[in-house]
Amino acid sequence: MKTLDKIRAAGIAVPPLDMRLEKRVPPGTGLGGGSGDAAALLDCLASAGYPVERFAAEIGADVPFLLSKAPAALARGAGEKLALLRAPSARWRVVVVVPAWRCFTVDMFARLDEYFHDEWESTSERACAEARHVFDRLARGEFCGLLPNDFCALLLREHSEYRALFADFCRAGAIAWGISGSGSSAFALWNKDDFCGFSATLPWVEDVLVF
Hints:
The protein is α+β, with helices and mostly antiparallel strands.
């Protein structure tokens, strides 16, 4: 609805719409569910001839990527500068674990600024180089362990429960794991042929999604 309101406020006369939304991804889990909804609406309107692609980055940093339908990309700026990455030859199985707590993006960025005291550990250039290096290793099916995420140290400090989950991922043969976006979900990747299933028995786990 925020996306539709923004488009209409800009003078684009979108007529009344009949929409049905079925959600499984809860807000505050770092999985881009709301951004995916926005991208789907933009895609629908663009297909109908409305000039709405320019609104993507204004709505959310991950909306341009989701709207692009690219299999993989490196995003910079406010998410609008996309460098497409070659689709990996390795095939993964992905497990996403949704915990009982929620992390909302705006709040998490404010807390991260406070956590780092404006002394961020990585520059944009280093972060991009690191992301490309990790992606290349994952594309080859190599073991990476805990994946870099600026929010990780903050979340581990507040929710040590992640450590037990990461240990379970490792014991189950995952090649990589980490925090999804700004939290709260965690995820792990397996090389497809090595995946034998995963079940989380930790009491704070709300849902487990397998792809």
